[in-house]
Amino acid sequence: MDDQENIPVNPRITTGVQTINDLIDKRLSRRGFIGGISAMAVVSAAGCSPAQEASPEVAEEAGVFSFQEITRGLDENHHVSDEHIADLLLRWGDPVFPDAPAFDPYAQTAAAQERQFGYNNDFIGFHPLTVAAGAPARGLLCINHEYTSTRLMLPGVTDRPLTREECAVEMAGHGGTIVEIVQATDGAWSVDILSKYNRRLTAGSTQMALTGPAAGSDRLKTSTDPSGRLVTGTLNNCAGGMTPWGTYLMAEENFNGNFMGRLPADHPETENYDRYGVPGGWYQWGQHFDRFDVAKEPNEPNRFGWVVEVDILDPASTPKKRTALGRFKHEGAESVVAPDGRVVIYMGDDQRFDYVYKFVSAQAVKEGDRAANMNLLDEGTLYVARFVEDGTVEWMPLVHGTGPLTEENGFRSQGDVLIETRRAADLLEATPMDRPEDVEPDPATGRVYVMLTNNTRRTTDQIDAANPRANNSTGHIIEIIEPGGDFASTRSSWEILVQCGDPADPESGATWNSETSENGWYGSPDNCAIDPSGRLWVSTDGNERTGAADGLWAMETDGEGRGTSRAFFRCPVGAELCGPRFTPDGQTLFVAVQHPGDSDGATFENPATRWPDFAKDMPPRPSVMVIRKADRSVIGG
Ligand code: FEO
Ligand code: CA
Ligand code: CA
Description:
Elements: H1 11-14, H2 20-23, H3 36-46, H4 50-53, H5 56-61, E1 79-80, E2 85-91, H6 110-113, E3 121-129, E4 138-145, H7 150-153, H8 164-173, E5 175-183, E6 189-192, E7 199-201, E8 207-211, E9 230-232, E10 237-242, E11 247-252, H9 270-276, E12 307-311, E13 320-322, E14 334-337, E15 342-348, E16 352-354, E17 356-364, H10 370-373, E18 380-387, E19 392-397, H11 414-419, H12 421-427, E20 433-434, E21 436-442, E22 447-452, E23 476-481, E24 491-499, E25 525-530, E26 536-540, E27 551-555, E28 565-570, E29 576-582, E30 589-594, E31 623-628
Parallel strand pairs: 8-13
Antiparallel strand pairs: 1-28, 2-31, 3-4, 4-5, 5-6, 5-7, 8-9, 10-11, 11-12, 12-13, 14-15, 15-17, 16-20, 17-18, 18-19, 19-24, 21-22, 22-23, 23-24, 25-26, 26-27, 27-28, 29-30, 30-31
Bound molecules: MU-OXO-diiron and calcium ion (CA) (2 copies).
Residues 238-239, 331, 437, 526-527, 541 line the site of one calcium ion.
C-alpha cells in the first residue's frame, strides 16, 4: 500500500527536535554521491567484510542475468520476460476449500469470502512438502491479504455508507491464505483445494493469542477479553516471512486505518495513538462493530501492529501475536540464523521518518526439532538502527530500564516498551528513514538489503548520509554488511546500493550502474527476494509516478555489474507487485499482483483494467501468478 497521505509523521521531525543525525556533520557521504556507482563498487571492494570475502562462489554466481528485458510501459495487462511463462494461480474469490461458494462479486457475503481467496495479495511464502520419490512436487503457499480497496471490491458503494455485511466482507478479505499446491510434469502449479492444510485467516473470525512480554498487559485488555491475551483477527498483513522451523510470519502494517471514533478526553493512550495515527478512519467497520470504534473499545488498537506467527502444518492451531518483535507498522519479518544459532528477524516500520529494526532470539534454533523452536520468538532482544555517517550501523536495544526506557518516561515494564515501540525508538534517537519496507538478509553473504520506498516530505535540512535526498520521490536501497556474517551483531556497516530514479535526468540523483538500460530503472522499491543463486530481485509500489508500471527487476550486487538493474515483469495498470518468492530450485517464481485497476477515481463499475479476466462485468481481481520456463531451467537465466 502506498497511500501515505493524512498520516501523521514522527514528532521528532514535525517538532524540529534535533536528532543525532542532525548533530553530526552533514557533509555528503562518500557513498552514493561522489562518483556514483563505480566509486561505490571500489569502496565496497576495498572495505569488504570477511563475510563478503567468505563466499567467492556466490559472488561469482550473482550478477549473471541472461534474460531478455521487457520494455518500460503501462497498459491493461501484465508482461513477463521472453522465454518465461506467467500462469494465474489464485485470484481473489477463488475457492480455498471444496465447499467454497462460486465467486459472485455482485452478491458477496462474509461467509463466502471466509472460504475464498482474500483480497490484495501481498507477502508470499513457500514451504516445500516432503513427497515420495518420483511423486509430483508439493508445497504450501502462504499469502497475506493486506487490505481491501472498498470502492473496487464492492459494487455501488461510492455514495453511500457500507452495510454491516459489507464491512464483514472486508474483514473476511483481510488476513492470509494457506493452500497446498502441486506441480505437474510440465512445471505448471495448481491449487489442491482438498488439502488438509488449506486455511483462511481473517480479521473477522480467526482467534489469535497475544504472547511474549506485553501479553496480559492491562493496556491489551478489552470488554470481550479481560485477559489481554486473546484477540480476534489480524489486520493489514503486508509483507512477512517464513521461519527456519517452517512457520509463517504475517506482519501487521497500517492497522491504524481500521479504527475510527474519538478516544475519551485525557485518555492515557492518547499520546501512544497519536504516534501511530490511530484512529485513521479509513474504514467504516466501527459503525457496525464496536471494537473498531476507539470511543467504545479504547484498548483494541493496542492489540494490532504486531507480527503474527502461524503453524502452517496444523490448521487448527492458534496463531500467536509475538509481542517481543515490537508494535509498529510492520512491513516484513524475514529471518536468518546467526552463526551462534540464534534467529534474527529484520523488520521495517513503513512510514515516512520511521525506523529499521531487528529482533535477536534469546535461545538458539534447534535444528530438526520443530517443537523446541515453536516459542523462540517470545524471548529475545529488539534493536532499532542508527545509521551513522561513518558507515556503521549501531543496533540499539529496546530494553526496559536501560537508557531512557524507564518509568520516568512512562515505561513501567517491557510490555510498555513494546506497545509503544516507536516512542521508545524515538528516545533512543534511531535514524528516521525514507519509509522502510522489506528488509531481506542473505545468509550466504552476511549482507542485508533494506528497501526504502520514498519520502517526499524530507526537506534539504533533514537529509543525512543514509537518507541523502530531499523530496525523495523514487527511494533507495541500503546494503547492511553484518561483520563476519554475524547477523546478531550490534554493530554493522552500511552502504547505499543504489539511489533509484531516472538516470537520464541529471536532477534525479539516481546512481544506477551505467549498464542499466532505459527499461532497467525504477522508483519506489518495496518488496524483494534473493534467489537460490544469491541474486537480488526488487518489486515496486509507486513506479507509476515515473510514468511506467510497477513490476519486478533483477539487480546485480557484486563486481563490475554492481548496481545494474534489469526489467523482468510488469503489472497491469493500477497494480503494485508483491511477493516475490522463489522455490528452492530457482525454477519457479511466485508473484502477487496487488490492487490491479486501482488508479485515481477507479471504482468497481469503472476500473482502470479488468485484469485478469477481462470479462465485461467482472471487476479486476488481485491475483498470484506463477512464473516458470518451458524447459524448467532457472528463472532469469
Ligand atoms: Fe503495505 Fe509498506 O506496503
Ligand atoms: Ca508499499
Ligand atoms: Ca509493501
